[in-house]
Every structure is written in C-alpha cells, then in structure tokens.
Amino acid sequence: MKRNQFYKNIYITICMFIMIFLSTFMFYTVWLEFVIENNQTGHLTGLGNLGMAIIIYALLYTIIGNWIQTFSLDAGRKANVIAGQVLTLFTVNIIEVLISMAITGQFRFLFEFTFRYFILFLVQAFVLCVLDNYMINLMRYLFKPLDIIEIYGKPNQLLAKISGIPFKYHVVDSIHYSVGEDKLEEIVKNADSILINDVPARVENHLVKMCFRYNRQCHLVPKISDIIIKSSSEINVVDTPIYVCKNKGLSLSERILKRTFDIVLSGLSLIILSPVFILTAIAIKLEDNGPVFFRQERSSLGGERFWILKFRSMIVDAEKDGRSIPAGENDPRITKVGKIIRAFRIDELPQLVNILFGDMSIVGPRPERVEHVEKYSAMITEFTFREKVKGGLTGYAQVFGKYNTTALDKLKLDLIYITNYTPLLDLQIIFETIKILVRKDSTEGFSQQRVQEIKEMDDSEDYIQ
C-alpha cells in the first residue's frame, strides 16, 4: 500500500507539471502574438522579457492552483477539482491583464488584453477541464483506494460518509474499541490505515501511540480540545516543552484588517451586484406580492444580537404555528423564485448590508438564531466558543461542510477557522465559496427523515420567520 501511495503521488506530480506546461504554453502563444503585432521598440521580443512573462504566468498558476487545491486530483469529487481549475485560470488571467499593462506601460491596451485573455481563459478552461477529467479517471483506474479499518466508540454517520467516496477509501472493517487491548494491537499491526472515530480519550491516546510504533497511518476524528491544542505555539521552559494556547480570538491588528476588508469588499459588492438585487426583488414581488425581505434575530460576536437580512424564499405564511421548521428537500413552502435564489445563494446577498454596518463579517461562523444557540449550548456546552469572532456571510463550515452537517461537526469546523485565522485563510474561503456553488450537496435542504428527527429541537440554521 505504501508503494501504491508513492506511485500515486508521482502520478499527481506529473499531472501537475503537465497542467502548468499547457496553461503557460497557451498563454505564451497569446502573449507572443500580441508582442509581434505591437512591439514597436523591439524590447518585448527579447528572451529576457519573454522569459519573465512565462515565469510570472507559470508561478501565478502554480501558487494559486496549489492554494485552491487545483492539483489535488485525489482530494475530493471531480466537480471540486474542475471548479478549482476554472477559478484558478480565471483569477490568473485577471491578474495577468494588470501585469501585461505594467510590462507594456500602456493603459490603452486594457480592452485588448481583456479580450485576448478572456478568449485564452475559455480555451484553457475547456482543454484543462477535459484533461482533468481524464487524469482523474486514469488515476482511479490505476491506483486502488486506501484500505482503512475503523475503530469506533459511539455510532455516527462518518462511516457512511466515507463509503460515499469509494474512489478514495475502502473500508475493510469496522470494529468497536471494546474488543480489548490485545485485539486492537493485532488490528493495528495488520492494517494499512486506521480510522479512530469517537473513542474515549484513553483509548484514543493508546491507539495513536500504537499506530506510531508500528508505522501505520492514522486518521483521527478530533475532539474540540484537539482542535484548540493544534493551533498552540511551542515554548521550552529550560528542558520541558510546553504548548501555549492563547484562546483570545483575533488580535487588535487582525480585527482592524478584517474590518477594513469587510467594508471595502461589501461596499464594492453592493455596487456591482445592484442589478441582481433589483431583478431578484422584482421577481419575488411579482410572484406573490409579498415582502421582498425578511429579518431574523441572530447571535454573533460575544452573544451580541442583531437582525439578519435575507431575500424571502418561502411563502409568506410559512410557519402558521409560529415554530421554526427546517426546510426539507422539495419543501412545498419554498416558492418558485425561492428555489432559484437558494440554489445560487442569492437569498443571502442582503447580508452584505449587515456586513457594511458591522453586524457581520464576510467570513466567519454562520450566525445562529438566539433560541437555537441556547438549545445547541444545552446539548454541546462548547457551542458558544464559535462566538469569539463575528458571524459571517460564508465560513469554514459552509465550504467544507453541507447544509445538513451536524451541529457538532459545524462547531469543529468553525473552531478550526477561529484558531487558525489569517487574512489569507479568509481569501481562501472566499475562493472555496465560489467553487462550492457547483455542488448540489452544499445547497440541499434536510432530508425528510432528518427533518422528522430534529423538529422538536429545531436543530437547523435554515429557518424562516
């Protein structure tokens, strides 16, 4: 299995270099054509300038591609890889328009560069997306999935989730930790990889050490304390290593930078998307003559309450009894316009106003209804940990989870964001948000079975007032 993974990594690396070469070569042909047509002084045709243009483009594509996981052919579903490819190419070519104008020193070429690179983007996207599909299919044919044995404590849905990606994992067996220490050691010795899933801390520590002793790969479902500790800094007191967990949320400089970013991006977005706002408002009003917006009281930083804005996507009298009811699949309360705006997340856009006024941030944990925070906190005492930062329009849990991800898993994802915050992480989440718009499972409602399970505790953030 180790050799299988070794050769798989080589294959992925070769594929990455092929993608870099093809994208850069296609750019070079477009750039060279422009240079030949417009190089009046002759300085742009020199090997130094041509080489610089090629190197800059290749570096941009490589850096942004790695950042958006464009080259991670085995990381997830095809749709994610292909969406990452398209987003990478689009971003690189937008940046290249500015770089090309800087190289030529001529702003008058803005339209020409924009047109040339847009055509280039379309050709690159078609060629490389077709190539991505072929490379992924070939990889899945040549290399078998990782054999993994689950050792579990409390039953949950993780095994079902893993079984849903058979091209990545093959679950050999699922064993409860109560089989005993000797049996567990025998399992670890003979396994390729172990999945430790929600077992007591004592058993978890023992299994991790056994995996280390026998050089076995270990997949571990983290507890909340594990996530907090992972972000700690290390110091040495004389000869004793100590981990320091600061646990203060964002620093003053980080808060100032994040707020500045929120104001600029939300302000620009409101201007650029104003036609979408107008068309959506007209469509909602024409369908049933009801209100365009609805408000809900939500909880954000430090438990502070505010009124969140959304485009109305359900019928006016969606909750006759006054109780919050989760939106299920094919929910009859969702209007025709509502189905469209929910699919593309357009219903969330009015929250840009909340961001501009300082109630929310572009990126952060999704703000919950006050009563839901109280109910979640009764079940998960650490739930309020996510209120160390402002609630966001999008967040770590939104791009790496689903609409119907459990409250505990969403909390863990939010804490990963809070404890590892950087401005670059915010940018990455924004890019990932664009990618997930193509994923059906990121926008789907709760299954009817799930709705029945959680009606009594209102276990959802997808409600209407």
Describe this structure in words.
With 465 residues, the chain is an alpha/beta fold. It folds into three domains: 2-142, no CATH class; 146-221, Response regulator (Rossmann fold, 3-Layer(aba) Sandwich); 252-454, no CATH class. 54% of the residues lie in helices and 12% in strands. It contains 17 helices and eleven strands. The protein has helices spanning 2-38, 47-67, 78-104, 110-142, 158-163, 181-190, 201-213, 224-230, 252-272, 274-288, 336-343, 351-356, 370-379, 396-400, 407-419, 423-436, 448-454; strands at 146-152, 169-176, 193-197, 217-220, 233-237, 240-244, 293-299, 305-311, 361-363, 368-369, 392-394. The strands form four sheets. It has a four-stranded parallel beta sheet. β7 and β8 form a beta hairpin. α1 (2-38) packs across α2 (47-67). It is globular and about 75 Å long. The N and C termini lie far apart (53 Å). The model is unreliable at 443-465 (pLDDT under 50).
